[in-house]
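Human
Can I borrow your eye for a moment on a structure tokenisation matter? Give me a protein, with the fold worked out from its sequence. Write it directly below this note and I will take it from there.

Assistant
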Amino acid sequence: MRSVFFFLLLLCGSPGASWAVDVAASVDPPVGRAGEEMQLSVVVTGASRNVQQPDLSELERHFRVYGSSTSRSVSIVNGRTTSSFTIRYTIVPIKEGSFTIPRLKVIHDGTEYYTDAIPVRVDAAGTPPPVAQGDETQSVVGGDRDLFVRATVDKSDPYLFEQVTYRFFFYHRVPLIDNPNLTAPSTQGFWKEDIPARSSYEETVDGIRYNVSEVVYALFPTTPGELTIGEANLVATQSVRRKRDRFSVFGDVYSGKKRVLSTEPIKINVKRLPENAPPGFKGAVGDYVISARVDKATVNQGDPLTLRLTVSGNGNIETVGDVELPNLTDFRTYSQSKESSSTPRGNSISGRLSQEIVLVPLSAGPKTIPPIPLVTFSPRTGTYKTLQTRPIALNVIPGTGEVVAGLEAESRGGIEVVGNDIRFIETEVPSFASISQGTRSALWWFSLLPVSGLAYGGLWVAERRRRRLGSDVALRRRSKAAKAARKALNAAREESELEARASQVALALRGYLADRWNVQAAGLTGDDIAARLSQSSIDGTDLVSLLERCDAAQFAPGAVGSADDLHQQALTWVDTLEDQL
């Protein structure tokens, strides 16, 4: 009996020694490289299950912090029981230098414990092979000879509203486990349009054959001065072969190594347009042509005809605005409709503006619509140009219908008596009998008059709104934004995987914001969203954080919380923005 008791005593050990809590942190490897993964481990020895993870916000100045994983172990050595709780984080250095991971606070059962500070040295990323620059401005790239990125612009000193073509290239010669994830650069101060890039291709650089993927944007600066195109970040998972045990019967073992590659920001110096612009210049920047035509060359006096103006060419067509007509004294003018569209053509954005004006001739005879001018600025030549349409000849036939106001009416003839001139006058007041049935019936019908008026008014308002939505794309997108977002969020509930659901939530939120602002969802970065919300006096920090958590779920699902929490926050933001925007 005593031997059994002695064995149990050895197995349990002393309570104070077995469950004394100690915390420690380590980094592997101790010397890292910019853009490559490192692992931060926090070990809590002697811990129970009630451990609160440390706050790593101070690390984010020098490191990107991705998802965490946890493990627990219990060991018995010489009769002493020891438990440990380990939290592992993936961290990626942003730049080279010597840094210190500060003391981390761990709370266990309400008591605070601190790790020691850890010095970390980060070397520069491997130097990629040189690439031909031509006339392009190239940012500093991140990567090594296996995979790297670079970004270029075709000009660094454009005029205001002149197109700047931004290209992002991803070179790799090693296998990848999944599709890379690109975070587009911040383009605050630019109007951005996507340009379809050619599909993946091969290119030889410094004697090495690479697979190349490309993303292209057309950027139009909207303010003069120095602007910055932010860094573009690409996350790729590289397939790495691990060392094989010589006694293993299996072949080589491969695993994934996550790489974060970044370009450096690119400075753009935007020049103001030259002074002394010709009269009539309203900001149309680009290389355009203008034309005009009418739907009929012969028209009756007082009958309408349609004048169609078309402006097309390379540039941001939104800068053209309304084309003003010269003084047309022989016509009344009514503006009818205006449509604009942009289409990528090669490496440029081509735009087309169509404007329709209704003209009503006031007098008969040969008429001429004089040349219609449009003043533009051509960035290609650096000069202002005055474009003109050709004059249009019209033949106006004297009208046979009602006389146009303002013209002298035809002389009237004599008074013609039709039938009896004056009818018989009653000399006695007739006696009317009161019929209550008829009175009640009349009152019933009179009571329906307001209802019919309201019904007609409702139909008129609905029809006016329908026509307005049909002609105003921005209004149509804005009016349907919330409904489309809630529908997309409800559909996201069907996703069982956190990664897929978080992706659908992010798409729904970005789609909602794009519809509210009438922009493309693909061009909405966190900086753009925060800046636009700030203009409406809305703090978008939490919304941007929510989108970043959804994006992080693609490669670190353990760090973003529950899917229901992301979903509910997204619905709350849609309701909030509907009230405040």
In short: Residues 1-18, 127-141, 247-251, 401-421 have pLDDT under 50 and may be disordered. The chain is about 25% helix and 40% strand.
